[in-house]
Amino acid sequence: MEVLFSIIVGVLFAISVYLLLSGSLIRLLLGIFVLGNATHLMIFVVGRLTQNAPPLIPDGLKVAETVIANPLPQALILTAIVISFSLFSFLLVLAFRAYQSLETVETDDMREAEPVTAHAPLRGRDV
Amino acid sequence: MFENPGWLVVWPVVIPLLSAALAATAWGNSRSQATIGVGGLAAQLIASVALFSHVWDHGPVAMSMGGWQAPFGIALAADTLGAGLTMVGSLVGLIVAIHSIGTTDENHRKAGFFPLLLALMTGVAGAFMTSDIFNLYVWFEVTLISSFGLIVLGGRREQIDGAIKYAFLNLIATTLLLIAIALLYGLTGTLNMADLAGKEALLPQDSAVETIVLLFLVSLGMKAALFPLYFWLPAAYHTPLPTVSAIFAALLTKVGVYSLIRVFTLVFPESGDIAREVMIWVAVATMVLGALGALAESDIRRFVSFTVVSGVGVMVGGLAIGSELAFLGTVFYFIHSIIISAALFIAAGMISAAGKATRVEELAGLYKRAPYLAVAFLIVGLSLSGVPPLAGFWPKVYLVQAGHEAGSTLLVAGILVSGFLTLVAVGRAFALIFWRTGEDEAPVPEAGPLVKGSIGVLAVMTFVIGLYSAPVVEMASRSAGELLAPDAYIKTVLEGPSAAQSEGIPSAALTDTKEATQ
Fold first, then answer.
1. Residue (of A72, A77, A2) closest to A39 by Cα position
2. Which of B17, B347, B496, B518 is deepest in the core (most CB within 10 A)?
C-alpha cells in the first residue's frame, strides 16, 4: 500500500515540477495546485496507512487495545488543505488581476517591476 | 488561572490577533482603525517586554495549548532569543505603524491596511515563539497571507507584477517546508521541536536524514532570501507602500533566518553538518552578491532591497560557523538588522516623496532641501555598512573574530568585502541623491511629524546601541549560550513551567523521561 502511494506521490511531484517550470501563469497555478495535493497525500502516507481501523478508543480505556489508524496526519492535512485552498484562491484572483492590468499571462513579459532600461544619464548641474 | 507564567507567552500572539479582528470590524472608520492598530501593537510591545523580563529573570517559559502536555499538544515557548526578538520586532512594528499613519491614505486603510499589519505581527510573534514545527509552518502561512494583502495594497501595475513573483515563489517555499516537515514526521513520529531534539541521536545517519536537512535549508533559505534563491526579494520589495516594505524587510526574511537557526541548533545540531558546508558558501555568496547588487542598482528602493539580502548572508554566515561567539554576532546582527532594514525603507520612501523620483539619476540636491533626511540616511547607511561607533560595527567584529577562530578565511573575507562594497554603495547613493547640486531648487514637500519621528527614533536607536552596546551584547551572549545548550528550553517545553522553576534536575533524569515517552 505505502509503496503504491509513494509512487503516486512521486508522479504528482513530477507533474507539478514540470508545470512549475513553465512560463505561463495558468500552468504555474495548476502546478501549485498539484504540488499542494501531492504534499497532502504525502503527509497521509508518512503517517503510515492502516486499513479498517478508525482512530477511536472505546469508553473507559486510555489507550486503544489494537492497532488503529494514525489520526494526526488527518488533522495536519485538514489544516494544510484549508491553508492551501485559501492561498490558491488568492493566487487565482491575483493572476486574473495581472491578466487584466498587465495584459499577459507570460511571466517573461512581466517586466513592470523590473524594467529593462539602459542607465539614464545623470541629471544635475555639476556632475 | 493567570498565575501560570506560561500565559506570558500567549499574550504577544493573542493581542495582535484580537486587535486585527477588532480593527476589521471598524472597516469603514479609518480613524478608529488607526487607533486600534497602534494601540494593539503598543499592547503587544508591553506584553513582550513583560515576557522578556520574566524570561531574563527566571529562564524559558512554555505553555501547552488546550492543556495537552507536550509533545502531544502544541506548545508555545520563549527563551531569551525568542522573547528578545519578539520584543524588538514588536517595537519596530509599532514604529512602522506610527509611520504608516502619516503615509497611508483613506483608500489604503479602507482596503484593510491595519488588520493586515496586525495579522502579520501575529504571525511573526507566533513563528518566533512556537515550539511545534508544524505550527511553525502555520505561522509562516499566517504571515504569508497577510503579506499578500499588504503587497498589493494600492493596486498599481508594478505592484501586481511584484506580487505575482512574491506570491508564487513564497508559496512554493512554504510548500517545500511542509514537505520537509512531513518527511521529518514520518521518520521521527513527533512534531515538537524539543522532543525532536532528543530524537536526533536515534536517527540513522543516511540519505533520508540528509534529504530532510537539505530540504529545510532550501525551503527556509528561500524564505530568508539566500543565494541563489533570493531573486523574488529585489523583484517585489520595492513595489508596495514604503511603510509595507519597511515592515517586510524588518521582519519577514528574519523569520526565515530565525527558523534556520532554530532548526539547525535544536532539531539537527549534529546531522546539520552536511548543510553547514554548503551554508558557508551560500552565506558568503549572498552577502557579496547582495552588496554588488546594491552597488549596481539605481532605483533607491531596489538598492535597499539588495542591502537586506546582503544582511541575510551575514546572519547565516554566523549560523554556519556555529560557535558561541558566532551566534553572539548573529543574534546581535539580527537585532541591528531589524532596526536598520525598517529605517532604510522608511528613508527610501521619504527620499522618493521629497525628490518625486525613485532613480538616483533623477534625484539630486536633497542635502540642502531636506537636511534632516540627509542626516538620518547617513547615520542609518553608515550603520548598515558597519562603520564604528554605530550599531552595525559590533556584530561584524564578533563575526569576523568567530570566523578567524574557526579558521574560516572565507567568512572573514566575505564580511569585510561585503561591508566595504556596502559602504561604497551607500556613499554613491548619498553623493548622488544628497550632495549633487540639482537643477531643481524648489523646496521639497515637508514630511509629516510622524514620518520624521519614526526615522529619527530608528536612527537614534542604531546610534545609541552602537555607543552603549553592553545590554544587547549580554542578551545576545545569553541567547548564544542557550542555542548551543538548549537543555532548559527542552525541559520547560516537555515538562511544563513547574519544571523550569525547580533548578538542578540532572540531565540524566531528563533523558530518562524522554526515553519513557518514546
1. A77
2. B347
Contacts of B282 (CB under 8 A, 6+ apart): B221, B226, B227, B313, B316
C-beta neighbour count of B80 within 10 angstroms: 25
What is d(CA B287, CA B291) in angstroms, rounded to the nearest whole number?
Answer: 6
Pairing of strands B75-78, B61-64: antiparallel
CA B21 – CA B12 distance, rounded (Å): 15
Residue to test with chain B: of A87, A91, A102, most B Cβ within 10 A:
A87
CB B303 within 8 A of CB B297: yes
For B191-214, write each residue's pLDDT tens digit.
Answer: 999 889 888 888 877 888 899 999
Specify the pLDDT at position B3: 66
Q: b/e per residue, B450-487, with b = 16+ CB within 10 A?
A: ebbebbbbbbebbbebbeebeebbebbbbbbebbeebe
Answer whether A113 sits within 8 Å of B432, measured CB to CB.
no
Mean pLDDT of B47-72: 88
pLDDT tens column, B23-48: 999 888 888 999 999 999 999 999 99
Separation between Cα atoms, residue B105 and residue B110, nearest integer Å: 9
**C-alpha distance from B189 to closest chain A C-alpha (Å):** 8
The full 3-state SS of chain A, as one line of letters, equals: CHHHHHHHHHHHHHHHHHHHCCCEHHHHHHHHHHHHHHHHHHHHHHCCCCCCCCCCCCCCCCCCCCCCCCHHHHHHHHHHHHHHHHHHHHHHHHHHHHHHHHCCCEHHHCCCCCCCCCCCCCCCCCC
What is the DSSP code (8-state) at residue B201? Answer: G
- pLDDT tens digits, one per residue of A57-78: 888 888 887 888 888 899 999 9
Considering only the beta carbons, identify the residue of B155, B182, B436 that sits closest to A127.
B436
Q: Is the ipTM of this complex over 0.90?
A: yes
Q: What angle do CA A34, B151, B120 make, to 5 degrees?
A: 85
pLDDT at B72 over 60: yes
- The distance of Cα A8 from the centroid of its chain, to the nearest Å, equals 16
**Can you tell me whether residue B438 is helix, strand or coil?**
coil
pLDDT of residue A122: 65
Mean pLDDT of all residues in B146-164:
91
pLDDT, tens digit, 9 for 90 and up, residues B217-237: 999 999 999 989 999 999 999
Put simply, the answer to whether B141 touches A47 (Cβ < 8 Å) is no
Distance CA B70, CA B194 (A): 9
Please tell me the predicted confidence (pLDDT) of residue A125: 54
